[in-house]
């Protein structure tokens, strides 16, 4: 009887750890909502500490004035003065900045320009350089955005010579690899002479719309 009376107690001591291990865990407390970053003090650092050379953004929307009578009158006077100089041939010796062979060249009448690399034109060919970035005279300068109209400015040139550059040496060496190479090569060069730089007609004259499909 004594053994039977103590059996429930022993059974309870043996089963209690197992029941405790498989019992459902206590539900977690709901987490607090995340604190919004824009309410923290760090959010104001970008606008609070600004470099001195950065301008403050305007608080209003800027409005561009489409027409300004004073500026229009000033532009009209300048254009009229340039047209007068062109008509009376009082511009002086004109110069131009042309884009040729991937580079910009400042040219005037009689200059000789060298174009490096392979270029198809042959000796004696006459060329019309259409990519004119800028043209100017003694008292004025016309700047293209990005280039001037090809009907407004004419830059004529002639190919005078096609030759090779001096011999260039190229030596390659790799350390501790027994690698040494010595190569010689020459670069193709084309010499062109600028025949004339001209301004055709008035600056503010409406040009023909023919050829707008071309890339300017």
Automatic annotation (TrEMBL):
Pfam families found in the cross-reference section: Ribosomal_L21p (PF00829)
Single biological process term from Gene Ontology: translation
CC per GO annotation: mitochondrial large ribosomal subunit
One of the record's GO molecular function terms: structural constituent of ribosome
The keyword ATP-binding appears for this protein: no
Keywords, alphabetical: Ribonucleoprotein, Ribosomal protein
Entry-linked SUPFAM superfamilies: L21p-like
Domain of life, per lineage: Eukaryota
Record-stated family: Belongs to the bacterial ribosomal protein bL21 family.
NCBIfam families hit by this protein: L21
Protein's name according to its UniProt entry: Large ribosomal subunit protein bL21m
Lineage, opening ranks: Eukaryota, Metazoa, Ecdysozoa, Arthropoda, Hexapoda
